[in-house]
């Protein structure tokens, strides 16, 4: 901002005051009554001009600061009237007001945008003042979930639903917790998480509430549909030929009983048919046992396991099978004394499944190689990888390998990877697959 005119005007007034004081001094020294009176008048006029000049600008600044104090950013200061320096000062004030108004408009737009988003989500959100209980924000979802009208203070909940009040507002959930809320007509299963934050010397608590009852019911329904589809398909595949063969054998036997001479009974065909029925029945029984194995792992026996010992057991167990297929296997642990908190029996079963899959993938591959690598990443996550340079997994079936009973092997049950995934989920870990067709596969177990 240019203050040149202000400096010039101020300098002239100060100079005028000095000249007036000199005239006054001459009037006293001479002494001369006329000069003295002129000096007094000029001095008073110069002092008034200087005072009025400075005061006018301080009043303008005071008006501006008052508008800031009361957030009156709509005020406009004239840029066409008054001295040049005051017009420049007003331009600065207007620029500040315009900038603040723009910031406020952006903040308001962002707030409205966020408000609309929070209203649209299915997750209930409420924030309130910890000391006074005054509700800062509550979206429609939480009111709908709790079957409540809009309320301004959480004390309303304390009177209406004491149990829900204690669970939501009195209990601190350091991690996301699954809670059963007792409503008037039903019990509601929800996920609750909360946090406390400071804002303008006040403490607020933010609570996030998600109704998982409908989600669980929907997922359960979908799981049952998929399960029934798989079970129906597999059972029909076994029962249909059994039923057809049994009907044929029954017809042959009945015809023999009605007229033995015209319809002689072939014992070999009868024996073969019964064996086929038995074989199919055994297959159906095996399928049922295989399906049951998917659900038998429900708890873990966790311990700090030395990965070197785990790999040694795997090597002893799998070396003959691997060597008989002409495949090399390597083990790498970094650091050598690495330990991971796992259920060694179950993870050993997972690794056996993965190695068997790798052996199958490396069939008819030159210089076939399988590697087991264990290490920890920078954030301390334990990782075990099984790598092979086999034929890889085609992209079109990559998303289906963890589906129960899905298998590309003629003799496969399609349970190995499904069971491995369940075991990793019980460890609160993950299993990841990276594969390139014709180059190999990397399966990572992240704990």
What does this protein look like?
The chain is an alpha+beta fold and 447 residues long. The chain is built from eleven helices and twelve strands. A hairpin with a 4-residue loop joins β3 (177-182) and β4 (187-199). α7 runs antiparallel to α8.
Question: How many strands?
Answer: 12
Mean pLDDT: 78
Shape: elongated
Biggest sheet: strands side by side, in what order?
2-1-5-4-3
Strand content: 15-25%
Order of helices and strands: HHHEEHHHEEEHHEHEEHEEHEE
CATH architecture classification of the largest domain: 2-Layer Sandwich
Low-confidence spans: none
> What does the radius of gyration come to?
43 Å
Secondary structure class reads alpha+beta
Largest sheet: 5 strands, antiparallel
Summed up, the domain count is 4
Q: According to CATH, what is the class of the largest domain?
A: Alpha Beta
CATH superfamily of the largest domain: Histidine kinase-like ATPase, C-terminal domain
- What fold name goes in the CATH topology slot of the largest domain? Heat Shock Protein 90
Number of helices: 11
How far from one another are the termini?
Answer: 62 Å
In helices, the fraction of residues equals 40-55%
């Amino acid at each position: 901002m240019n203050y040149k005119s202000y400096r010039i005007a101020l300098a002239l007034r100060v100079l005028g005051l000095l000249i007036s004081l000199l005239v006054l001094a001459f009037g006293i020294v001479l002494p001369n009554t006329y000069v003295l009176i002129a000096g007094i008048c000029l001095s008073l006029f110069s002092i008034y001009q200087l005072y009025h000049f400075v005061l006018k600008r301080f009043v303008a600044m005071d008006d501006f600061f008052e508008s800031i104090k009361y957030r009156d950013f709509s005020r406009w200061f004239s840029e066409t009237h008054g001295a040049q320096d005051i017009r420049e000062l007003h331009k600065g004030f207007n620029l500040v007001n315009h900038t603040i108004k723009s910031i406020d408009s952006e903040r308001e737009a962002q707030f409205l945008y966020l408000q609309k988003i929070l209203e649209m989500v299915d997750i209930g959100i409420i924030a309130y003042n910890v000391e006074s209980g005054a509700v800062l924000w509550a979206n429609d979802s939480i009111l709908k979930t709790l079957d409540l009208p809009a309320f301004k203070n959480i004390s309303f909940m304390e009177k209406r639903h004491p149990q829900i009040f204690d669970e939501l507002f009195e209990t601190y959930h350091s991690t996301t917790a699954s809670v059963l809320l007792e409503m008037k007509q039903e019990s509601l299963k929800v996920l609750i998480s909360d946090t406390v934050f400071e804002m303008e010397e006040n403490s607020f608590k933010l609570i996030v509430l998600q109704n998982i009852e409908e989600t669980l019911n929907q997922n359960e329904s979908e799981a049952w549909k998929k399960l029934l589809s798989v079970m129906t398909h597999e059972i029909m595949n076994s029962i249909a030929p059994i039923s057809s063969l049994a009907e044929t054998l029954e017809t042959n036997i009945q015809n023999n009983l009605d007229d033995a001479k015209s319809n002689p009974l072939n014992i070999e065909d009868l024996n073969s048919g019964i064996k086929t029925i038995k074989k199919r029945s055994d297959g159906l029984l095996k399928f049922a046992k295989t399906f049951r194995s998917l659900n038998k792992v429900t708890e873990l026996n966790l311990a700090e396991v030395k990965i070197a010992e785990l790999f040694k057991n795997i090597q002893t167990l799998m070396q003959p099978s691997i060597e008989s297929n002409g495949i090399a296997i390597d083990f790498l642990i970094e650091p050598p004394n690495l330990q991971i908190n796992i259920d060694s029996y179950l993870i050993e079963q997972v690794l056996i499944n993965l190695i068997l899959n790798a052996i199958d993938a490396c069939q008819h591959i030159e210089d076939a190689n399988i590697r087991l690598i264990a290490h920890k990443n920078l954030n301390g996550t334990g990782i075990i990888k099984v790598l092979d340079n086999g034929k890889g997994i085609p992209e079109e079936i990559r998303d289906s390998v963890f589906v129960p009973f899905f298998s590309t092997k003629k003799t496969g049950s399609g349970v190995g990877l499904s069971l491995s995934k369940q075991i990793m989920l019980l460890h609160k870990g993950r299993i990841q697959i990276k594969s390139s067709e014709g180059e190999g596969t990397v399966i990572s177990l992240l704990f």
